[in-house]
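Re: the pair you flagged

First of the two:
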Amino acid sequence: MMKNYAGKKMVIFLITLLLLLSFNVKSVSYKKEKVRIALYDSISPSVKLIESSLHYSWNAENGKYEMDVKRIDFKDVMNGSLKNYDVLIIGASGRQYFHALIPKWKEEVKEFIENGGGYIGICGGANIASMGYEKPHTFLDFIINIASLHIVDAYINDDQDEEWQYLWKEGGRANIAIKNEIMEGDIFAGMKKRYITYGGGPGLYKINNAKGLAKYVEEPSDIAPLHYWIWAGKWIPYKTIKTDIKGYYSSVETIYGKGKVVIFGGHPEIPPRINGSVDEFFGLSIYGIPRFVYSWVGGEQMNWSYNWWILRRAVAYVCNLPLPPSNELYVYVNPPSDGKIEAYAENAEKVEFYVDGNLFSIDYNPPFKIKYDMKGEHVIKAVAFDRNGGEAWNERIVNIQ
């Protein structure tokens, strides 16, 4: 009897232990948290790349974080909608200089950051966050000085007849690779140098409370020389454009009120082309203006997501979240062809295909693709997974008659 009783007690103990363990496992299961990103809209093509880079989620010890990016504009800032977001990103845009001439617009943005919202500025978005020009010369310099938010204690070296020419003369393919020396900071994941695309952004200087994260160690006009051109029976170059931002900070971080701020003079969203060369020709700029423009050709083209991890980590950083890994991850749904749809992917272990929100197929081997012959309009979504559990996604509306 005693032996049976002891046996029953042991069974009860084991069942109880298993139940306790099962409850414990349930209590530490992953939660999914949305990171609400407000992306200020722009006519610049790079805004689409910022948006694509942030179609991303990653795992951390305490849960899963998913970036939810939405484009906003002037009216969204004016009606107080920033309070619905965790971070504001302003990229390569000029419209914010004029929007910030309205005091309420400027107050809404500064109040959002002061109350704990994150801010990331890229190129023009870095200019407006700064102290502006120490010695303004042109009309636009004075406009930028009036518009500047003064949330980063750094002046900008970004002259109209020098650095800005890499924007004004852009002919649509301007992914000039400029080497950056990484000073410190978790965002760059301990790297010592990195090639980042340059497109006319500022060199930052005279920082006090702010912290320099990276410096330009190459001069854009040495790497990619541009010229002013004149007609003299034929087009001839009459003056070489000279920049002077080598040795200036290319990235800076600071605290404004309760909010974290990170700004970039370069473009982590645009994949650089290393060891390319300049091709100058008469054509249309990216703003539709006929003039002498340039393209950056040859060399080695890096992957689309080559530097996207920098931007993703910056978002997590200003939101006080665990940082995602410093690896590439990207997927793009190509148009249907020959009865199939292929998804181009970078650093993906597998790709899941969804049709109208329903899982359709999983492919573990590149080229990732599905057979497709469905008639009518459908939404095709591809989700790429890396080995760390990170996810990137892209979707396309397909209409086959």
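Second of the two:
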Amino acid sequence: MPRLYSTLILVFGLFFTTSAQQKFTISGKITDQRSNETLISVNIIFPQLSTGTVTNEYGFYSITLPEGNYTMQISYLGYATITKTIELNKDLLLDIQLTEETESLDEVVIKEDVERINIKKPQMSVNSLAISTIKQMPVVLGEVDVIKSITLLPGVTNAGEGSSGFNVRGGAADQNLILLDEATIFNSSHLFGFFSVFNPDAIKDIKLYKGGIPAKYGGRVSSVLDIYQKEGNSKEFHANGGIGLVSSRLLVEGPLKKDQGSFLFGGRSSYAHLFLPLFDLDNVAYFYDLNTKLSYSLNNNNSIYLSGYFGRDVFEISDSFENSYGNSVLNFRWNHLFSDKLFSNLSLIYSEYDYDLKLNFVEFDWESGIRNFNVKYDLKHYISNNFKLEYGLNSIYLKFNPGEIIPTTEDSGINPFKLIDKYAFENAVYIDAEHKLTDKFAVSYGVRFSTFHRLGQDELYIYEDDNAVVFNEDQQIYQSATPIDTLNFRRSEVISSFSNIEPRFGMAYQLNETSSLKASYNRMSQYLHLLSNTNSPTPLDVWTPSGKYIKPQLLDQVAIGYFKTFKDNLFSLEVESFLKKIKNRIDYIDGANLIANNAIEQVILNGRARAYGLEVLFRKNEGKFQGWLAYT
């Protein structure tokens, strides 16, 4: 018997070794030939095997195939498709450069296989927009706008007239996670919503996840808008700009060290305030923003990035009123390649949003804001052509300034007053798998485990039966409860803790070469809430954390869809139906006071929300005339 076991182990070992020897890995980066800019979501296809892969957020790809000779097709929107013949008898490091296609007004030819890959993948409810496409769309006052462009997609609507906020599948504007180079943007608008904060000249890639959201994303219950900035031209110095009706812009990029490092600086500023004195108006109204990025490749396995965004809006009416608000983000990232199958990214992120209002006629200044410090570590493991893993962790420290009144003169009749600062920790670990089970059936499955700890503050009100809001039976309305006690906490003490398991699942069944059925489910939690008296975001809105009386929002969403391409991907059709339910959706009692309220829990209700719908997206992908029709 021992000899039999030894023989079986030896045979299995020989089989495994032989199988392993027959497969090799092709990996590398794909970049723009002119600027050396890494390209996101490039398609790498092997027609003989009807398989392929795409580059990640840093232009890296990896695929493992059996030994043999292959034709390799590389295609990307707006770039010339190239074909390579390779002999795969060992692991290959293959960096590829693509050449941008020459576009003219009379003909734009785009050669890609995006739709065919989309048919096979379990990912659904995600839309990608090329910045070149956005720049061809109709604009408001000559300004290209990223946020307004995505509202042309199915399931996405404006948060309000003139607002750059957006709602996804019946959700609220604060339920969207907006990321710029992985850093959170808390307010995406300039000029109180007429324009977004994203300079199109500095943007490289845009993805909107409406459902089936991967486990690496969390913290919001409606959608994820993931935007990446350009890295800059590492080959030569380059500058471009433009003058619009509302603002002017300038972008400068060039090498820190040729083919190894680059810089990018992009700025925008409005100039309407320069003309106001011509009309004897002693007013000021302008915005500005600055995009920055430094990129450097240390060697083949290590790259570092330092990126930032700084934006501000300023309004002044004579000498009586001054208002300013804006975002600031800074992000340091380190890419490390452990092997040709294991890619990692470490991010250290700072995000801030602050609001300032000066009322000089009553001589006081109102300030509020939110800050977070985020550490993220993400890994992607290309185990085989049929199985990929993504896993990682992140930890966020948050500080909330609900508001502070500061007298601006010694003679002011206003007393200084500060709402209690709030602090919290939000942590998460996740794992996500994409598994091709057969030629026709693929699944993705994962889980995110999140925790939230509301940290101590100077004082916390206590209510009878822990109800900060009570229902008045006689008047049939909700009213604020009266505190019965007060507790004091140190900064390091935990007031409340929450934890949630957030499963994610997706599947795709290929009906034939041109069509498939897909389904997805995801649960998500949101621990931050935007307090607002309006349907659309305004600068005066205040973020507040979950706690003893304000519970985290929890989402459950399911979606099913039918996907089809026609005439060699000339046309494509996506039809999706979804149902989403949200627990603990924020609502307010009648007459709620949200400004300078030290007991905000007394006006907040934890409600429920439900949304369901049908979305249709029909695209024409190639030729002189391109575009899409969307119906929701």
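The longest strand covers residues 364-384.

-B.
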